[in-house]
Structure prediction request, 322 residues.
Amino acid sequence: MAPVIKLNSGYDMPQVGFGLWKVDNAVASDVVYNAIKAGYRLFDGACDYGNEVECGQGVARAISEGLVKREDLFIVSKLWNTFHDGDRVEPIVKKQLADWGIDYFDLYLIHFPVALEWVDPAVRYPPGWHYDGKDEIRPSKATIQETWTAMESLVAKGLSKSIGVSNFQAQLIYDLLRHAKIPPATLQIEHHPYLVQQELLNLAKHEGIAVTAYSSFGPASFLEFNMGHAVKLTPLIEDETIKSIAAKYNRDPSQVLLRWATQRGLAIIPKSTRPAIMASNLDSINFDLSEEDIATISGFNRNIRFNQPANYFPTEYLWIFG
Prediction:
């Protein structure tokens, strides 16, 4: 039986899922369908990925063919920055559910702790970061408390079974917990050997919040954005130490990186369009690293974060993001 993580909401979340960021619309339906055939049950999507309609088509095909039932799947989506105002949350969730062709999400996350001015989906969807679709940043006055209260109403109305946050750091989590009636079930963060964030992981464990790691292979996800620090770093799957550890276990370097995360209690959401890699990622749970090897990999930590606003915006806008 595939390993699961028990959430504080009472539900079981598969520990190994499938990430949908940068899955091209032209192939998304087939990718999701093939991933279900390969054995994946958790799919991590978002408004901002712009492919929820196609991903939902892949789910519908698998269900229609009897491969799975809806209740066998754990579907995750996220609230984009432009919908943080309290009265905007439920309408956009209903749109996203309609895009997926489902009645509820298993988990719905605040994508970033960044509130931007509303953009009508009829004007542009997904809205992206810029109000005008080009270069203008317009912050909203919505607080995390306002947004989280609206998120909690999703649970009461059956629109999402669990709710959580993504890209939050310690101070924001503690701020949220002060007023939350429903605590976050999960925290999704960038996490790889170059960015271990052990103190944040300790906080989440202490508060009973499950952690999901994205970008498990480090700079590999960000090379296309031509970020200087991503380009200069050795890709983790090509690092000689990682390759040496992989050889010892007769495993792929990618499997070692994924197992380093899951063995330390995190969930993972790697993706691939290739069936062989899909199977390899799913199989990464089926061996154990020694404590010494886990410590060696953790020793790669350089506190280097790739997914942050400083990488995408002119410096005059960075005050918005703290």
Notes: The chain has one domain: 4-321. The CA atoms of residues 78 and 107 lie 8 Å apart. Residues 86-100 form the longest helix (15 residues).
